[in-house]
Amino acid sequence: MGMPHAAERWTAERVRALPDDGRRYELVGGELVVTSAPSPRHQVALAALYDRIRPWLAESGIGMLFWSPADMSLGEDEILQPDLFVIRAPPGRRFHNWSDIGELLLVIEVLSSSTARHDRQLKRRRNQRAGVPEYWIVDLDGRIVERWRPGDERPEVLADRLEWQPDERVEPMEIELPGYFAG
């Protein structure tokens, strides 16, 4: 279960010193969020998204797709572990450290019972505040995707088709959601 440790203010340095015990540690706004390893269902859902997004990115040349653990930061003393995320990456650019990554184009979180509150509240607000163009929350039980953009007060709720076009010069990527959720 995602356990916030808000009684004291944590730092990224302190979080990185925690033992490698199979848990996922994130630091958002000084709050330590601890979650267990994801379930097989969660990982299958991520793999299916990866398999749909990666070929489109390779063809379009827009960016690179990564998964956690990643130790991402959006500028504060923090550690973020998004399930999947896309960065803008010029062709041929190599990244040696997570701190080398600049512009995030998309962050995706697949909900689980232990992460739902943090994904929908704490992490969503942080991504919006940082100006991440799109933040998707994939609800496997509800069979929907919530799409959040920086100024949104409410998500766009998608159940049939998800279209993503981070660059107007390329055709959008489309995911038929009933087929995705059926898998």
The biggest sheet, with number of strands, parallel, antiparallel or mixed sense and barrel status, is: 6 strands, mixed
Number of domains: 1
* CATH C-level class: Alpha Beta
Tell me what portion of residues adopts beta-strand conformation: 25-35%
> From the coordinates shown, what is the CATH architecture?
Alpha-Beta Complex
Helix content: 25-40%
Q: What are the low-pLDDT stretches, counting only 5+ consecutive residues below 50?
A: none
- Would you tell me which CATH topology applies? tt1808, chain A
Shape: globular
Strands of the largest sheet, in order across it? 4-5-6-7-8-9
Contiguous helical run count: 4
Question: How widely separated are the two ends?
Answer: 25 Å
* Average pLDDT level: 88
How would the blueprint of this fold be written?
Elements: E1 3-5, H1 12-16, E2 24-28, E3 31-35, H2 40-60, E4 63-67, E5 84-88, E6 104-110, H3 116-129, E7 134-139, E8 144-148, E9 156-158, E10 161-164, E11 173-176, H4 177-182
Parallel strand pairs: 6-7
Antiparallel strand pairs: 1-3, 2-3, 4-5, 5-6, 7-8, 8-9, 10-11
